Thiol-specific monooxygenase
Amino acid sequence: MAPEIKSVAIIGAGAAGAVTAAAFKAENYYDRVKVFERRESAGGSWIYDADPRPHPPLQPGKLAEDVDPPLKIPDLDLRVPKAVPPNQQERYSQTPVYNNLTTNVPHIAMSFSDRTFAYGPFPPHYIPRQYIEDYFSHHETDRFLSLNTTVEDVSKIPPTEKGGQERWKLTLRKYDPLRHIDLWWEESFDAVIIATGHYSVPYIPYVKGLEEYVQKYPGRVIHSKPYRSPHIYTSKRVLVIGNQASGHDISNELVTTARLPVNQSRRSPGLWDGDFPPAGIEWKPVVEEYIASTGRILFSDGTYLDDIDTVIYCTGYQVSFPFWNAAHNGRELWDPKDKKLIKGYWHTFFQDFKNLAIIGLPRTLTFRSFEYQAIALSRLWSGRNKVDLPRLEQQEKWERDRLESKKREGKRFHDIPWDDGETFAWLEGLFEIAGLGTLKGDGMIPPVLGKEVVWAIEHLRKYPRPERGKDGTMAGDVEGADEDKDWVLVEKTKKDSLAFI
C-alpha cells in the first residue's frame, strides 16, 4: 500500500526543483510543499559567482564522502530555531559558471514545455538562471522557497503506530547575513525529493606526485570549477587536463591570452577533436607523474613540461549527498564504485523508500526530462497515476540488468542515450505513469516530445563536429549554415546526439 503523502520537501531550487515545485502545486492535492535552497536565490548551477575564491582545497583521488563530509549538527534542541556562529566548513555551494559559458542544449529542447527561454538557440548562462527564477514566480511557487537554507541532515522517522508510515526529519541551517549567524532547526515531512544536481564537488583523479606538487606549489593546480576568464592567465604557460565541454571551451579561450601553445592533456580524442589540434593548442597524452622537486610534469609518452604556471583540471564532478544520514537510515544512497543510486528504479524512484525520490540525475535531455519526472512523481504520490510502478522484484531486476549491461558496454549507469531510442522509452515510461490530470484541471500534463524538439536535438550543434563524410566535408559544413552565428546545423543524427551534455 502506498503511503499517504500530503507534505513534501524539495531539496534544491535549480531547474529540477523549479519544475518539481510547479508540478506539485498544480496537482492541487498536497497541503505543504517547501523548497530548500542553500544559495541566496533560485537558479541552481546557473547562478554566476564572479569571485569564486577561496578555492576549495584539492584532494586528488578522494571520494565525495571524504571531500564533502556531513556537517556536525549542534547538540541542541532544534525543535525551535537556535542561533550559533556561522559554519566555516567548505560546502561547495559556488557554481562552475564561467564568463562566456552558454548552454549546450538548444533552447527549444532545454526549456520546459509551458515557458521558453528568452532567446536561443544557445543563450548565455544568465538566461537559464533568469528563466529558473522567473519559473518560480510564473507558477507562484516562489512562496515555497526557503533561501540561504542548507539541508544538513535527512533522517527517517519511524511510524508512531503499527502499520503507520515512515516520515522524514530534515535538519536545516540558514545563514543570516545581517547578524552573521547560522540558525538551525528541524522540520518533518511525509516525503522528500532530492533535486540538488551534480556539479558541486570537483573530481580530480589520483596522479603520482600530484599531492606533493600541490603542497609545494600552492595555487598552481586548480579544478575548472573556479575558472572564470582567460585574462588572469595572460602570458602564462597553461596545461589543461581534459577535453570534454569545459576542457574544450577553456582551452580555446586561453589561446587568446595565454602563452602559446596552450597544452591540453587528452586520454582519448574528444567529440570536437579533428585529426590535428586547433591553432595555438598542443595535444599531450595523460599525465603520468608530477615531480615536486623540480616542477616537471611527465606524460605517458615520455615527454615532459617544465615551468608550467597553471594546471587546470577539467575532469568533472562527483555526486554528493552529505545530508543523507546513512547510519540512521540503514544504508548508503550512492554507490561510488559503480557510480549509481543504490536500490533505485527508473533513475527517479527508490525500491525501499516509497516516499523518497530524486530528479535531475541522469545525463540526458536537460531540463526537459525533469518535467516528465516531476509530473510522474506528483501524480504517483497523489494516487492519481495512470500506471503503477512495477512490483519490487521487477524493479530489482531492472537495476541488476542495467548494471550488468552498462558494465559490459563500458557506459555509465545513469547515462540515457538518445539515438538508440532509450531516452524516448524512458520519457514514455514516465508519461505513462503520469497520464492526464483531473477533469477539473488539476495536475500538469506531461508534454509531447514534438517534431520541433526532436529536430533541434538532432540537428543543432553548439560546436561543429570534425568527422569527415565521404565527400570530405566536416559535420556542420552544410549549405545554409550561418557563418555569423556561434552554432551550426548538421545534416543528420550522430551516434550520441546528447554526448555534449
